[in-house]
Design brief:
Helix content: 25-40%
Strand content: 15-25%
Bound molecules: pyridoxal-5'-phosphate
CATH class of the largest domain: Alpha Beta
Number of helices: 11
CATH architecture of the largest domain: Alpha-Beta Barrel
Structural class: alpha/beta
Distance between the termini: 25 Å
Number of domains: 2
Length: about 425
């Protein structure tokens, strides 16, 4: 994959420092350009929130926030972290299993939107809002049935689609449960158990995040399905000027790192779906920050085993769990290094597939399988790309107690 020269230079420089590698590099200039292109491709009045769980790095958040309308957080920890990193950002609080304490903290902090996952959560939120003495704005999260041809089936078997809806799932609510929530807000009558009429919950619309890893036509198909359900539903329940959060899940193709999601086509399709008097919102994560991150490391050893070549690099999946979690090969580029100081022959391979593994004592510590490289030797450097989302922050850092990577930022101004 294409390696920016600034990243290559930084890798060579870090290689000269005693504990310089492995390291993460976030190219904030590339991130700003990418986020700006996403913003420009979307209809002007569509709201673009960034899903913090993809990469909560503070500098990354501050960069994305310049182009986004807000940040989507999925825990009390993320909510406090995002508020500290970008104090002015509007926050939407989603995700399963929100605790009473998390909800109370978020109400207190003035979170802009709550994505409610169940009737119990609606009760918990109402109690928190009452205790704090504040009104809250709510979208109910819906889990629509996958029925009907307009909803694109996730590509089964490819391993790169995560299905969160359209099937039994802990996420969101089936349509009858949504109606039950509206019933709670309408109330069985003041003073009766479970009555929420007096609570200051403002129902604003619906939220849906059905799957991750969809291309633009599939994302538009899902958006159409959500709106076909949501518009009459909101009208029936007298939700005026409804809001529809269409979720995230825009694909990142790890096999074609130079071909990002078709934001222009997606933006045109959303413009065609949009109607006056309603707000559309999206909350992508992976497709926003994956491209700006690089994991840089050094080849420690090269050897053959039962006829196949293996290169062991410093670090591994405890720093970059993405390929192990998703079952793919992390795209990478070799940076050849001329110097070889030890007084014995340099191990290496040339013109044959090599499997790149890390320092962990487990066969799962594989970063990329059978990669074709012109040459790879101990002491060469490897730059893994698409390491800016669900990478460091989802990794099992403490396993084997190797040192953590360094973190570096290529500034955007
Ligand atoms: C994870 C998540 C997102 C972001 O998904 P990506 O695949 O990173 O775009 C958005 N909304 C919700 C509710 C999520 O759980």
């Amino acid at each position: 994959m294409r390696l920016p020269s600034r990243v290559r230079e930084l890798a060579r420089q870090l290689d000269r420092e005693p504990a310089g590698l492995p390291a993460y590099v976030y190219d904030l200039a590339a991130l700003a350009a990418h986020a700006g292109r996403i913003r420009a491709a979307l209809p002007r009045d569509l709201q673009f929130y960034y899903a913090v769980k993809a990469n909560p790095d503070a500098a990354v958040l501050r960069t994305v926030a310049r182009y986004a309308d807000g940040l989507e957080v999925s825990s009390g920890g993320e909510q406090r972290h995002a508020a500290a990193a970008v104090p002015a950002a509007a926050l939407a609080f989603g995700g399963p299993g929100k605790t009473a304490a998390e909800l109370a903290g978020a109400v207190q902090a003035g979170v802009a939107r709550f994505h409610v996952e169940s009737p119990h959560e609606l009760h918990t939120l109402a109690a928190a809002a009452r205790a704090v003495g504040r009104a809250v704005d709510v979208l109910l999260r819906v889990n629509l049935a996958a029925a009907g041809p307009p909803c694109p089936p996730p590509r089964p078997g490819t391993g790169d689609t995560l299905v969160m809806g359209g099937a039994p799932s802990p996420f969101g609510m089936d349509p009858p449960l949504l109606d039950h929530c509206v019933g709670l807000l309408a109330g069985p009558g003041p003073g009766l158990p479970g009555d929420l009429t007096a609570s200051s919950i403002r129902l604003r619309g619906l939220h849906a995040h059905m799957a991750s890893g969809l291309d633009a036509p599939a994302m538009l198909g899902a958006a159409g399905q959500i709106l076909r359900f949501g518009r009459p539903w909101c009208a029936r329940h007298r939700v005026t000027r409804p809001e529809f959060n269409l979720g995230g899940g825009m694909a990142v193709d790890y096999r074609r790192p130079d071909e990002p999601f078709d934001w222009r086509g997606y933006g045109r399709g959303l413009a065609a779906l949009a109607r006056r008097g309603e707000t559309l919102r999206i909350e992508p994560g992976r497709s926003v920050t994956a491209y700006c991150g690089w994991y840089l490391t050094r080849v420690l050893d090269v050897k053959r085993s039962h006829g196949q070549a293996f290169a062991v690099v410093a670090g591994g999946t405890h720093h970059l769990r993405t390929p192990a979690a998703k079952g793919h090969d992390q795209p990478c580029t070799v940076i050849p290094m001329a110097a070889w100081l030890p007084g014995w022959p340099r191990p290496g391979v040339a013109a044959e597939p090599v499997t790149i593994t890390g320092q962990l004592c487990t066969p799962k510590d594989v970063l990329a399988r059978r990669v074709m490289v012109p040459r790879l030797r101990a002491g060469d450097l490897v730059a893994f790309g698409l390491a800016g989302a669900y990478a460091w922050n989802i990794s099992h850092h403490e396993f084997l107690l190797h040192p953590p990577p360094g973190f570096h930022y290529l500034a955007d101004r």
